[in-house]
Specification:
By secondary structure, the protein is an alpha+beta fold. The chain is built from nine helices and eleven strands. Helix 6 runs antiparallel to helix 7.
């Protein structure tokens, strides 16, 4: 066997070994082992992140980790961490895979907290929006001042608490007191009108609503969730909101 043949065999062996390693890595990403799950969760915990869900991503070799502070991605071995959005650009339309995953988490959360929302219902409801709100936020107050307009357009507004100061802050104490009021709707209207909030404590899950907001990507208020889990950041006028809702095929009304 001459030198060129030997070199060719060596190259073939190296290529085969690398291919095998790559396939093994991809295969391991298709179904994470218990040990891999433990490793990834432990390494996220070192960063102060509680990993609620760890699963393989549609992208080979990438693991999606849903934490109490949003979505992150890791390598299969947990050695590398990525924070950002993943897009599928291989199809006819570009899909934001990160947003799709978050939308599912938002829908689950809306179902979980449905009974603890403060709701301003439309008499002839066509749409529902769920709004993370804070009492001191200027645009939150503006949105609330237009509540009759939202309702007249068939838009039911459901509130979740997102005190921007965080748990234990004055904004948390005040908004918790609104949730603990006998007349939650009036207490919300009074507080957003600038009235002093009578301090109350109860078992309403205000802290849990706030943590849910952090988990699904809320970093400011108002943050509006649509029924399909899409997040609309920032203030929208009643007319803008109606136009947006009409443009979504899954909305109740056309």
């Amino acid at each position: 066997m001459n030198l060129l043949t030997r070199a060719g065999h060596k190259i073939a062996i190296i290529v085969f070994a690398l291919t095998t390693a790559m396939l093994a890595n991809i295969a391991s990403a298709q179904e994470l082992s218990v040990e891999q799950l433990k490793t990834i969760k432990a390494r996220m915990a070192k960063l102060g992140l509680n990993a609620d869900t760890v699963k393989v991503s549609p992208m080979d070799g990438l693991v999606e980790v849903i934490t109490d502070q949003g979505i992150f991605y890791t390598s299969v071995d947990g050695n590398y961490l990525i924070q950002g959005k993943v897009y599928d650009i291989g199809g006819a339309q570009i899909e934001n895979l990160t947003e799709s995953s978050l939308a599912k988490v938002r829908i689950d959360g809306m179902n979980e907290f449905e009974d603890s929302m403060i709701v301003f219902p439309a008499k002839e409801e066509q749409y529902q929006i769920t709004v993370f709100t804070d009492l001191t936020c200027g645009y939150c107050r503006k949105l609330h001042q237009q509540m009759d307009e939202f309702n007249d357009l068939g838009i039911t507004v459901r509130y979740l608490a997102f005190p921007r100061g965080g748990i234990g802050s004055q904004s948390f104490i005040d908004i918790r007191s609104v949730w603990c009021s006998n007349d939650q709707q009036q207490a919300m209207t009074n507080a957003k009108g600038g009235a002093q909030v009578q301090q109350k404590v109860c078992a309403e899950p205000v802290a849990e609503q706030y943590e849910f907001g952090r988990k699904v990507g809320v970093n400011g208020t108002p943050a509006i969730m649509l029924e399909d889990g899409i997040m609309v950041p920032g203030y929208k006028s009643p007319q803008q909101m109606q136009q947006l809702l009409r443009s979504i095929p899954t909305a109740k009304a056309g």
